[in-house]
């Protein structure tokens, strides 16, 4: 009876079999590893590859949630310099993705 009270025995009773586990896991949605997430990550890497090293670092830090002030402090530069670098990187990304041309067509059309 004391063996039945052990946590490992209770855990074994609460564990699903392999078929039941597969069925349960297949119904759980995950943003990580989804086709959309994979495509987004690939696109991000491809775009980054076309930027300068400084632009890449600022974009990665921005994506990670760092503020311009934090990035400037870490790099030993001014907030204005980081803002300018990030602005130019965004313009370059828009050109790479063809976004600026689309916006111009909509505005002029």
**Total of helices:** 8
How far from one another are the termini?
80 Å
Are there runs of 5+ residues with pLDDT below 50, and where? none
Fraction of residues in helix: over 70%
Largest sheet entry: none
- The CATH class label is Mainly Alpha
Structural class of the secondary structure composition?
mainly alpha
Question: Any overview of this molecule?
Answer:
With 109 residues, the protein is mainly α. It has a single domain (32-108), classed as Winged helix-like DNA-binding domain superfamily/Winged helix DNA-binding domain (Arc Repressor Mutant, subunit A), CATH 1.10.10. Helices cover 76% and strands 0% of the residues. It contains 8 helices and no strands. Helix 5 (53-63) crosses helix 7 and helix 6 crosses helix 7. The radius of gyration is 24 Å and the shape is elongated. The N and C termini lie far apart (80 Å). The mean pLDDT is 81.
Please give a quick description of this structure:
With 109 residues, this protein is an all-alpha fold. It has 8 helices and no strands.
Secondary structure elements and pairings:
Layout: H1 2-5, H2 7-14, H3 18-26, H4 35-48, H5 53-63, H6 68-75, H7 79-97, H8 99-108
Features of the shown structure:
single chain, 109 residues, mainly alpha, Arc Repressor Mutant, subunit A, 8 helices
């Amino acid at each position: 009876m004391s063996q039945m009270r052990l946590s490992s025995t209770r855990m074994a009773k609460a564990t699903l079999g392999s078929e039941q586990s597969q069925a349960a896991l297949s119904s759980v949605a995950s943003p990580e590893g989804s086709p959309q997430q994979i495509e987004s990550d690939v696109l991000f890497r491809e775009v980054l590859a076309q930027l300068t090293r400084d632009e890449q670092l600022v974009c990665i830090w921005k994506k990670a949630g760092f503020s311009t002030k934090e990035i400037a402090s870490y790099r030993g530069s001014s907030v204005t310099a980081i803002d300018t670098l990030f602005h130019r990187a965004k313009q370059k990304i828009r050109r790479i993705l063809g976004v600026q041309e689309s916006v111009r067509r909509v505005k002029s059309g």
